[in-house]
Amino acid sequence: MMNKQLPINTAAFGMDQRTIKILEMVFNGPGKGEYVLVNDIQSAQACVFDLDSLEGKNSWKKYRTLYPHLPIVILSLEDKDIAGTVHVKKPIEVDKLIKALKKIKQWESPKLAQKVSTASTKLVNKLPAPSDIKLAAEIATIDEEEFLHQYCGYALDINPDEEIEKIYYEPSQYLQGFFEKAMVVSQQFDQGGILIEGLYKPIVFIYNTNKILCGCEVTDSNLRTMTLLPLSHSHLRMTTLNKTDLEEYITTRQLLFKPLDKFLWQVALWTARGRVPKGIDLHKDIVLLQWPNFTRLIVTPYALKISALWMEQPSSLLETAKILDIPQRYVFAFFSAATALKLAFVDRRTKSRSPQQLSTQTPNTKRSLFKRILARLRG
To answer: How far apart are CA 269 and CA 120, in angstroms?
Structure first.
């Protein structure tokens, strides 16, 4: 079994409170368990340095002289090519910051290697008790179940002839519907974006670069809470920003860039929770237009198998669950997220087929289908 590395102690230099909050958000979110923000430079194994601030410019040479072997991520509006550093251009994009941190984590810094080795030795010398191992396993199980419930719900399979209404929801009654509308509007502009106001913090959609702009206060926890509440249209408004307006908006605020497709995918999963948009025919074929970018999007259970099946053989939602022998809620959740990004749609030209009709397939036909699915996954 591969040993999991300890979090990398990371110090911050030359930063104002807003930038530090961004780092804290990244370290507590996508970088959780990988990086820890520390105040003591002596305990640091890496550093994030803001070169644009007055403090950063004045202390850079001194810092570099005292800690020449410490890996550094440089934050700056201008491109910086400094030996032993990785540059991240402002405004900070979470994905690029994480990528830079991963890069310096891979560098063979003597100080980094020494500290990780020392910490690992201490752990080996102090083996955990069986009770600690059991507790850790229970916590991991709880975390996994919470993840599944947040994105896929926990509803049992339905009988399509009974209680079918409980698997439907109306996206337009939630933030999901408003965000999808904003995405459609933003598609009309080659430059600029759409400013969404009325939330606890503004968000800007920039469709042509697949990004949203938001403050560090827009956390997953806050956003998820809002996606679960019925929508009040009276408090929300969209404003068009041309190229000049957008550039001015960016320069006057400390903002994060996030992928727009990942944002909408996550919002749809939170809102649907294992349901499908109202009016969807459960018995008509689903067509997947293209393979989702799973390197960026949240991968729900069986998402790869569902994608492979729909790319190989369009099937209805109920058929998909039966063919793959998986809970319906995982199929419903994936479909709802895919339709939010316009990656999947119901082929209304096909005739509705009940799952019972699958029994007419011969065993050889089913085996051939599974072989093709497996081949696509491996490919």
So the answer is: 38
- 120 and 38 part of one domain: yes
What does pTM read for this prediction? 0.61
Q: Is residue 2 part of a domain?
A: no
Domain boundary among the residues 266, 295, 320 is at 266
In the block, tokens 């100080």 appear at 111
* 235 and 285 fall within a common domain: no
Task: Provide the 3-class DSSP secondary structure of residue 224.
Answer: helix
Same domain, 291 and 354: yes
**Tens digit of each residue's pLDDT (9 = 90 or more) over 291-331:** 999 888 998 989 999 999 999 899 999 999 999 999 999 99
- Find the helix or strand (DSSP H, E) in which 197 lies: strand 193-197
φ/ψ region of 33 (left if φ > 0, alpha if ψ in -120 to 50, else beta) reads left
Could you tell me how far CA 323 lies from the centroid of its own chain? 28
DSSP letter, residue 158: P
Residues 48 and 101: their CA atoms lie apart, in Å, by 9
**How many Å apart are CA 326 and CA 345, to the nearest integer?**
21
Smallest Cα–Cα separation from 213: which of 200, 228, 224, 202? 202
| Residue 28 and residue 222 in contact, taking contact as beta carbons nearer than 8 Å | no
> Is residue 179 included in any domain, yes or no?
yes
